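Structure tokens please, single chain.
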Amino acid sequence: MLDVRRLVLLRDLASHGTVTAVAELHGVTPSAVSQQLRLLEEETRTRLLERTGRSIHLTAAAHRLVEDTERVLAALEQAQSRLHSGAEEPAGPLHLACFPSALAPLAAPLSNALELAHPGLRLHITEAEPEPAARLLLQRRADLALIYRYTNLATPPPPGVETRVLHVDPLVAVLPRNHAAARADGSPVELRELARAPWITAPAHTACGAAVLQACRAAGFTPQIWHTCSDFTAMITLAASGGHPVLLPRMAAAHVPPTLTTRPVADDTLARTIEIATRPSATREPPIAACLRALRTLTASIQDDGIAGGAADSSADG
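Here you go.
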């Protein structure tokens, strides 16, 4: 009988390319990973790895074994799902990976909602950006992941997982109330109106920073960036103290100080989709199905409250 844990290491090596990367994923040393892969070769009596200098490659037999491993893991999940399919009440631990700006508006109320509706279900939340969250799913260290993708970047969904769009979160301009673009009628802001202003943006290597830079360049200018910051709350604080514009996802700009206001952006491609990611077929498991129902209710309430619909005033916000 082949060791499933070793099969998972081989699968991860196929996905991530190096023993070091696999070791980091699993929190072990590279030598421990190499030892387990050698034992897998002994178990299978098959050469699975080819080493060329410092590089390592999977053989054709190893690639076939990786494909079979995915089917084995899916079958184990299906067996677990069927084992609990007759349960009347979802129960047990449920692990959710969640990106930082969704912790307060989604993950926290989700935890409360599940506790009230299903007392036997214990939600455990881990903060993670989309890429590491997808890895946690594939490693079976998370059961679901809240992720995002910026629509104007055309980022593909993470490989190996299923995703469902829960909410479209447009970016809004956070401006001083006396800014010329903060018109009283709440009409959308053309990015060109902000071309001469000093900007606050997320770093260019982040998804938000890249999305904003691409939108500005599509509008015909490169923003004059004075501050870069990856924390949305800190960006709002900097905007309030310096009077500089900032573009943020509306969900992250739900609360701004009285000196600022939010306005929709005329570029309707500038948004992020908030999605729930699961392993294939995992949605049939009662705890995951219960979590999905609660998330749909929460995102619907966000839209009803106006966070998804826009705000001309910081006190009635979005």
